[in-house]
Design a protein that fits this description.
five-stranded antiparallel sheet, GPI/OXD
Amino acid sequence: MSYHHIAVSDLDQWDNRDADVRSISVAAGLDFQNAPFGLRVYEAEPGQQLPLRYHYHDEQTEAFYVLEGTLHVETPRGEFVVDADEVLVVDPGNAHRAHNPEDADAPVRALAIGAPTVDDAHGYEPEA
């Protein structure tokens, strides 16, 4: 058993998303795939989204805990508005797109947790 003390500000951008994303779980040595969970911090400016696309998962549950600002999560059932110190949990099979609207006044900072980390994301196209 080991311990990992990580300063998020020391982490590099995790991938090529528009939003700033830092992978705490990768820094702790958890593989991107098949780990018990994934843990990332996102900072999205107005007009940016957290995931790469509107999507859903077969097995993975995702939780978005808002640290600062307001996160908007588009779903087929409507939009959730998640303020600081609130969390939205998305069960497998439920399409969602977490974003900071273009007309937002400030960035949003959120902690995203996904479990398990499996490659099961599918794109979702909302009906016109």
